[in-house]
Amino acid sequence: MVSAIIEDNVTMSPIVSYHLKIVLERLAKVRYRNLTSFVFRALLHKILLRSFRSHLLDTFHRVRPQSLISIKCRPHNFGDFVLLTGDAAHAMVPFYGQGMNCGFEDCLVLSEALDACNDDIPKALSLYSENRVKDAHTIIDLAMYNYEELKDLVNHRSYKLRKKLDLFLNRVFSNKWLPLYSMVTFTRMPYHEVVEERKRQDKVLSRLRNSALSMAAVGALLLIYCGKKKHLL
């Protein structure tokens, strides 16, 4: 009987129909004897199916896309009793996928601050704000940078070369060299330290590049010199 109701009143995919039939049959066995009533059929047909499609289309045409925002504030505490965490303190664009993770990390940092201050709440809130503001601002900047990276930089040869170089150095020096994304996503390294480490890596690669160019220039000069000397002989 339940199956007949579904087939008579509802158009749906075979998979959805199959699972819905199972649910309704089980409900019928648990004393829901009026499932075949007109009221139930009307509610099932209108609320779960027709209204959903119309609501979805209406929302798509009526609601305008919302602007992406970033929020930076300092400090994160107000007096001795109020503390901002999560998006209230550091809303960010979604391009690094760190919004929720950063919010959970807020809780961890707050817990560490409470332990360090022996549960003295006013001191813990001040310590939390002092330690967290720099990291919150940094991840907001990193998220925006990742937008620029995804929008444009991924098409540059220099970006692709750096990506391959980072992966190679990570394989060779796994404990010493981590790509930027890995440091942000897979470690507990504070965000501001991630940026400092990235700058250090940039300096190392810059020096290696300059050394390689210098050696190539010296080699070219030696070849020219040897070629001229041989010609004179």
How would you sum up this structure, described in words?
The protein is mostly helical and 233 residues long. Among the domains are: 81 residues; 74 residues. 72% of the residues lie in helices and 2% in strands. A two-stranded antiparallel sheet has the order 1-2. Strand 1 and strand 2 form a beta hairpin. Helix 6 crosses helix 9. The protein starts with a helix and ends with a helix. The N terminus is likely disordered. This is FAD-binding domain-containing protein. InterPro entries: FAD-bd, FAD/NAD-bd_sf. GO terms for molecular function: FAD binding; kynurenine 3-monooxygenase activity.
What do the pLDDT scores average to?
81
Q: What structural class results from the helix and strand content?
A: mainly alpha
What summary fits the major beta sheet? Answer: 2 strands, antiparallel
In percent, how much strand structure appears in the residues? under 5%
Order of H and E elements:
HHHEEHHHHHH
The separation of the N and C termini measures: 106 Å
Question: How many distinct helices?
Answer: 9
- Helix fraction by DSSP (H/I, runs of at least 4): over 70%
Which keywords apply here?
about 70% helix; 9 helices; mainly alpha; FAD/NAD-bd_sf; extended; about 230 residues
Tell me the layout of helices and strands.
Elements: H1 2-9, H2 14-29, H3 38-62, E1 77-78, E2 82-83, H4 87-90, H5 99-116, H6 121-151, H7 157-172, H8 180-186, H9 191-232
Antiparallel strand pairs: 1-2
Helix pairs in contact: 1-2, 5-6, 6-9
Question: In a nutshell, what does this entry contain?
Answer:
The protein has helices at residues 2-9, 14-29, 38-62, 87-90, 99-116, 121-151, 157-172, 180-186, 191-232; strands at 77-78, 82-83.
